[in-house]
Specification:
By secondary structure, the chain is mainly β. 13% of the residues lie in helices and 43% in strands. The chain is built from 3 helices and 8 strands; from the N terminus they run αββαββββαββ. The protein has helices at 2-13, 58-64, 137-140; strands spanning 26-37, 46-55, 75-84, 94-102, 111-116, 126-131, 144-154, 162-172. It has an 8-stranded antiparallel beta sheet with strand order 1-8-3-6-5-4-7-2. The radius of gyration is 20 Å and the shape is elongated.
């Protein structure tokens, strides 16, 4: 009688919710994009910063790591950090952030890859966003991609004019 209750538990304990993605072969890194956040931005509007036709440098990565297209199983967002590069002001005025990726030829088909939602903690002058689980292989194996950064509603006006540098990474499996 007790085995009847134990069997479903044993089966469920070995069941994985997500498939094994395999080992990371290499990381794709992009550190060359910045945007300006100014003190006059309206806190009730969404502010967009778009970067079009960014080079994926996929051919250089594949050559450096001796990998072919068929060897790549998936490409997932790993990390995105916003860094205030010219002042000590914090990102405490930010409420929500969404970062989306898209093919330059398909600007209406965007996929969210990173986000930030408020959690009550003080943010500091660097802000780490949370990656989504979107497989970006079909986009990142192309020569070019585009991203859109959305600053959605501020808690307050930005304190000063400052430059934000983005450090973005993707895992290639």
């Amino acid at each position: 009688m007790k085995i009847k209750y134990l069997l479903p538990f044993l089966i469920l304990s070995f069941w994985k919710c997500t498939p094994d993605r395999g080992p990371v072969r290499f990381e794709m890194e992009y550190f060359d994009k910045t945007f300006e956040v100014g003190p006059g931005l309206d806190p009730f509007e969404t502010h967009f910063f778009e970067y079009n036709n960014m080079a994926t440098r996929i051919e250089a990565y594949k050559s450096d790591f001796n990998v072919e297209d068929d060897d790549i199983i998936s490409i997932f967002p790993r990390s995105l950090r916003f860094i205030n590069v010219n002042t000590n002001d914090t990102y405490d005025f930010v409420n929500e952030i969404s970062v989306k990726i898209f093919k330059p030829a398909e600007p209406n088909r965007k996929f969210e890859i990173f986000y930030h939602i408020p959690n009550g903690n003080r943010l500091g002058s660097a802000l780490d966003l949370v990656p989504n689980e979107n497989d970006l292989k079909d986009i990142m194996l192309e020569d070019r991609f585009s991203i859109e950064v959305s600053l959605v509603r501020f808690r307050d006006n930005p304190p000063t004019n400052f430059t934000t540098r983005m450090e973005m990474r993707f895992d290639v499996r």
